[in-house]
Design goal:
The chain is mainly β. The chain is 7% helix and 28% strand. The protein contains 7 helices and 54 strands. The longest helix is centred in the first third of the chain and has 16 residues. The chain is globular, with a radius of gyration of 27 Å.
């Protein structure tokens, strides 16, 4: 089929770092600035339109800063489950096999001779803009025009940073390592450094304090947060002695960090060979649609926790994981389920005492904060966990010397907000020896000074959580996490007492954490001030400049300029696409079966909700949804049924009526929005996931695909490996639609997660299907790419394995250049190609880094294939 709509899911916006500056000493304040009664009536206490009130909560659930309802076990662990299925976990050996297979593919080189494709070209965005939109004010999102960046998990700033020469390293979650030498200019220029890395997931960056040139740095791969989306396990550590131009590594891969996330690296001052690295469980795998949650253990991987090297990274010793000794640390399901004295998720932060490098501090998930006074040989708990029963309880640390030789420590800690136990800030002014006394600086009473740090990372401290104190300024402390949506009714750029707040994504204290100034938005405008993003993950200081790495979400649209893209709609951007004949139409989804449509070229104000009927069934985290490539106005979406609309969800209403009732911003919500109908038997027994269809029951619909050859053929698949075809998908009534299950007609199709279908436009009974997971999981049913031919007369289907030497690598999508017959498949290691008539796969083309690719789209009319990556934006390849 033509795939003229751009189906690729969740364009991962990366390669850009958002830098915000503020003067620490003398932060901008406007004394006495408060809402007038009239202004208040227009904002927090206004009567919002019913549709906005009805759906804004759902939107906020997907917004960065309001993801607590997702929890750390949703999208990311869901993608892990997709690769593990039908097992519940992925042994390290399978991951190693996939990497080896990918390396073999890369060694084969690229296609040669006539008909080979060109070179991958990045199509951005490198400048991702939330344009000004009057209905997006400080009460619900970034209120003014805003330049966004990918989720940045780590930042390192050179100690000699000055205007004109300021070196900054940044590590997006899935975008590799980047460097700029002009971080303080208006538009820094960035260089990509991690071409040699085996994976682009960055967890930590550390500059070696023993190198006065600042050119020696360490990078830990694998994101160490207990994430809800897109977190990737790594392969170990890399080291550079020339500012990132060349690398050694991965170090510690075997026996320590492979398939784990390295959240902190510390090099001991005075001894560059002594290095500490803190690891957490981490997970593996990204994809376009995704599935139910999972606990990822990765059998065969090393124990999570704190490791130490005394030989510059050549060897590593496991020294701590949130308990007095490591004797009880099992690194298995018992530990993950909180059944041992050790941390169920690992050590998130390690620091050295600023006055004595032999004093080590470590903070662990659900096991509090510990100290070693002998370089990690023995350990003492100095502050218990805020809640050891909740495995995502995360303490973050900052230490600073005080006059007189003592060491001050700030601990910022929280979890999922269970039982009303809010995140808070603690401080002790003497932690290097003895039994420290920590003061709880936080109050839940808005009238108290301590309210400034109340619930600072809401219910997702496992994801957004930092505390930073600048060197030489022990009374200055920055605290950050996620946005306080419920508090923005009383805007004030400089006060928090009495409930006045403007989001509190980042707050600043200049009196050692007693009171705080809200730094989320400035005082330029009371309704549309300049503001930072709701999610904050990291912060460095220079010593009076702030640079923050942010996570961007939403649905983005290119402008024809490969540098600049525009954010079209807020929220967690899922699938998106177009109409076959109406160039002004757009659709997009949030997480779950939440669909909006737009009839004004993606104008933010014209997004209209059409998903009411879909709320009755479970679905993938990002639902499979397509706009019909043949019939304007027809769309298909999968939850547990396959659903259809023939009016782009408008139904019998006019567009004016749809906007009046269902517009996301101004609708009154007085009607059912959306006219989706389930195809086939509308009862539960008619679901494509139901046991009434035989084995491989359960799960959700994971793929839907139409074709240009007719108006009636629809292919669909489910997460446990069922594949269906309907030859009358446009029939009326919808209950008359019939599905034929094809996988049960063959004996060689895998019972693994189906994530891609490409239908032959010349023969709608033929398609190519891609499978996630590993052959090792289903050894009797191997294969990742299959050609499927259905004979509707005989009622048979043949499945031909086109994997050949693909290797045991989970595929994430498959498309075909129907003009040449070449197949393209996306993987965690880039895009590969099987030339027509060939039996050997190669990398598709040069130019693309080794990056996870979540989905592919071919647009035949322009002879291009597009790839959506996790962390390195979107890419295009010209087909010859």
């Amino acid at each position: 089929m033509s795939r003229e709509r751009l189906r690729v899911a969740r364009w991962a916006v990366g390669a850009a770092l958002v830098a915000a500056t503020a003067v620490i000493a003398g932060a901008l304040v406007v004394p006495g600035l408060r809402w007038t009664d009239g202004e208040r009536a227009l904002t927090a206490e206004k009567d919002v339109p019913p549709m906005l009130a009805r759906h804004l909560d759902k939107v906020k659930e997907t917004l960065p800063g309001f993801e607590s309802s997702e929890g750390p076990g949703s999208a990311a662990e869901a993608n892990f489950a997709q690769r593990a299925f039908p097992d519940s976990d992925i042994p390290l050996a399978r991951i190693a096999t996939a990497r080896a297979a990918a390396a073999t593919l890369q060694k084969r080189g690229f296609p040669k001779g006539k008909g080979r494709p060109g070179t991958w070209v990045s199509i951005g965005p490198s400048n991702a803009v939330y344009p000004f939109f009057p209905l997006r004010d400080f009460t619900n999102y970034v209120p003014n025009e805003y330049v966004a960046g990918g989720r940045t998990t780590a930042i390192a700033l050179a100690s000699d940073c000055v205007p004109g020469h300021c070196r900054l390293y940044a590590g997006p979650a899935g975008g590799g390592l980047w460097r700029t030498d002009n971080a303080l200019t208006g538009q820094p220029s960035w260089t990509y450094l991690s071409t040699p890395f085996e994976i682009n997931s960055i967890g930590s960056i550390a500059l070696d304090p023993n190198d006065p040139t600042g050119n020696t740095l360490w990078v830990g791969t694998g994101e160490a947060n207990a994430c809800g989306s897109g977190c990737e396990a790594g392969v170990g550590l890399y080291k550079s002695t020339d500012g990132g131009n060349t690398w050694t590594g991965p170090l510690g891969k075997a026996g320590a960090f492979d398939a784990r996330g390295v959240g902190t690296i510390v090099v001991q001052p005075g001894d560059p060979n002594t290095v500490y690295a803190a690891s957490t469980r981490a997970i593996r795998g990204v994809s376009s649609p995704c599935c139910g949650g999972a606990v990822s253990l990765i059998p065969g991987a090393a124990k999570w926790g704190l490791y130490k090297s005394v030989d510059g990274g050549a060897s590593w010793a496991f020294i701590h994981n949130g308990a007095a000794t490591t004797a009880g640390c099992t690194g298995d399901a018992t530990e993950a389920n909180n059944g041992t004295p050790c941390s169920p998720r690992g050590v998130r932060r390690v620091l050295l005492d600023p006055s004595d490098p032999l004093i080590v501090y470590a903070a662990s998930y659900a096991r509090g904060t510990w100290r070693s006074n002998d370089g990690g040989a023995t350990w003492t708990e100095i502050k218990a966990s805020l809640n050891s029963a909740i495995t995502t309880t995360r303490p973050e640390l900052a230490v600073t010397p005080l006059p007189g030789g003592k060491t001050r420590m700030y601990i910022a800690e929280g979890h999922t907000n269970s039982g009303g136990q809010y995140s808070r800030l603690f401080r002790s002014d003497d932690v290097a020896t003895g039994v420290p006394v920590f003061t709880d600086l936080t109050s839940s009473n808005p009238a108290d000074p301590g309210y400034g740090s109340y619930n600072y990372c809401t219910g997702q401290c496992w994801y957004d959580n930092f505390v930073t104190t600048p060197p030489g300024h022990p009374d200055i402390v920055y605290l950050g996490g996620s946005y306080q949506y419920g508090e923005t009714g009383n805007f004030s750029p400089n006060r928090l007492a009495g409930g006045t707040s403007n989001g509190r994504g980042v707050v600043l204290s200049t009196d050692a954490g007693v009171t705080f100034t809200d730094m989320n938005m400035d005082a330029t405008d009371p309704v549309h001030p300049n503001g930072i993003h709701p999610d904050q993950h990291f912060l460095v200081v220079n010593p009076n400049i702030i640079l923050g790495g942010t996570q961007d979400n939403g649905t983005w649209q290119s402008t024809g300029n490969p540098v600049k893209w525009i954010e079209s709609m807020i929220g967690d951007g899922g699938q998106s696409g177009f109409d076959v004949t109406d160039p002004h139409f757009r659709f997009h989804t949030y997480a779950g079966a939440q669909v909006d449509v737009n009839f004004k070229d993606g104008d933010t104000a014209d997004w209209n909700w059409i998903a009411d009927p879909l709320q009755t069934e479970a679905s993938e985290f990002y639902v499979p949804i397509v706009s019909d490539p043949k019939v304007s106005g027809t769309m298909y979406v999968g939850t547990q049924h396959a659903w259809r609309t023939k009016t782009n969800g408008v139904g019998a209403m006019s567009l004016d009526e749809l906007r009046a009732h269902c517009n996301e911003w101004t609708g009154d919500g007085a009607v059912t929005c959306g006219d989706w109908v389930p195809l086939g038997n509308p009862a539960a027994a008619g679901r494509l996931t139901n046991a009434s269809y035989g084995d491989r029951s359960g799960g959700n619909v994971s793929a839907t695909e139409r074709v240009t050859a007719d108006t009636s053929t629809l292919w669909a698949a489910t997460s446990p490996g069922r594949v269906f075809i309907s030859k009358n998908a446009d029939a009326e009534p919808a209950s008359a639609v019939v599905f034929v299950r094809l996988d049960s007609l063959a004996g060689n199709d895998p019972n693994r997660y189906v994530n891609g279908i490409h239908v032959d436009p010349a023969n709608p009974n033929r398609a190519w299907v891609s499978y996630s997971g590993f052959d090792a999981t289903t050894p009797l049913l191997p294969g990742h790419i299959f050609e499927v031919n259905y004979d509707p007369v005989a009622g048979t289907a043949t499945w031909t394995d086109r994997s050949y030497d693909f290797g045991d690598i989970p595929a994430t999508d498959v498309v075909r250049d129907d003009a040449t017959g070449d197949l393209y498949a996306s993987t965690d290691f880039g895009v590969v190609r099987l030339a027509a008539g060939a039996s050997s796969w190669t990398m598709a083309a040069p130019g693309m880094p080794n990056v996870e690719v979540a989905g592919l789209t071919i647009v035949p009319s322009v002879r291009k294939i597009y790839a959506a990556t996790h962390g390195l934006s979107a890419w295009s390849l010209k087909l010859e």
